[in-house]
Amino acid sequence: MMDFMERHNKFFLSLLIALILFVSTTPVYANIIPIRDLEKAEIMLYGQASENAILQKIDTLELAIFGETKKGSLVERAEGIIEFVLGKEDGLSLLLLINIMDWTLFNRISAGNIMERIENLELNIFGQLQTGSLFNRVERLSNLLIPQDGLLANKVLVLKDEEIHIRLLEEINTAELEPGQSIKFKIDSNYKVNDYLIIPAGTEGSLTITNIKKAGRFGQDASLTIRINDIKAIDGSSIPLNLKLEEKGNYSEEIAIGVGLLSTIIVSNPVGLVAGYFYKGKDIVIPAGTVLKTQVLDTVEVYSIKLQ
């Protein structure tokens, strides 16, 4: 099935670029200005939403993106901005295009908002920032960075129960943590399905401590409940993960971990697992750098790429 899809998608990447950069003229039937989505577009572009009035917000975004203000109702103009920045319902998005360019040039996905990442690409390619609209700058970069003859793009299924390893960037210590705190992690190596890149190496995510029981007296060991926040695939879609236990039927969004279960989730540890032995019982200490097993909670479809 995958070979069949590859044979019929030689021009998929050029189509993807055209669809992302195409300014839609499809009639808009909604009659409500999508203010929240406009703010999402601002945050994705600049890292924060402006406090401008709606008309000024739309004018400013259109000038930045297209180099001119557009005609039409505020709803139509807002939808044009949102479609360009946030993407289409089928999964094609500006973020996917920039992620592909990042990966092609750096073999990783850079951090930052879209404008910062475009500027970083321009500095590395041209040695200086480029002028013109965002539309033209992205088009110029994509023409230089995306090898359409050697790169395939396709929809790929990431199946439920697939195992993905994550490396902790911070220590987990039940003696110091409280519910609600987050711990950062990253993906060390490219995660692929049938050679299609799903999660690039260096992609960061976080897990949240949802419940914690401190080590107590009379040998009561510590325990904690962890939820892994969805990690982003190369197309910006979310992949739901959780820690992988050896027991079958582990499909919940949160996993309770006790001292006795640590060995079932740890792939490797830089200094050896630390469990503090006190009269009151054992605290759970998992050092930064520890690699943990996770699993995909639900099957997800991702727009992905691979080199031929």
Give a brief description.
With 308 residues, the protein is an alpha+beta fold. It is built from 9 helices and 17 strands.
SSE inventory with pairings:
Elements: H1 2-7, H2 12-21, H3 35-46, H4 54-66, H5 74-86, H6 94-106, H7 114-126, H8 134-145, E1 151-158, E2 163-168, E3 172-173, E4 182-186, E5 191-193, E6 196-199, E7 204-213, E8 223-228, E9 231-232, E10 238-239, E11 241-243, E12 254-258, H9 262-265, E13 266-268, E14 274-278, E15 281-286, E16 291-296, E17 300-307
What would you say this structure looks like, in words?
The protein has helices at residues 2-7, 12-21, 35-46, 54-66, 74-86, 94-106, 114-126, 134-145, 262-265; strands at 151-158, 163-168, 172-173, 182-186, 191-193, 196-199, 204-213, 223-228, 231-232, 238-239, 241-243, 254-258, 266-268, 274-278, 281-286, 291-296, 300-307. With 308 residues, it is of the alpha+beta class. It folds into two domains: 1-149, no CATH class; 157-307, Lipocalin, CATH 2.40.128. The strands form five sheets. Strands 2, 4, 7, 8, 11, 12, 13 and 16 form an eight-stranded antiparallel β-sheet that branches. Strand 14 and strand 15 form a beta hairpin. Helix 7 (114-126) packs across helix 8. The longest helix is centred in the first third of the chain and has 13 residues, at 54-66. The protein is globular, with a radius of gyration of 23 Å. Residues 1-12, 23-29 and 276-280 have low confidence and may be disordered.
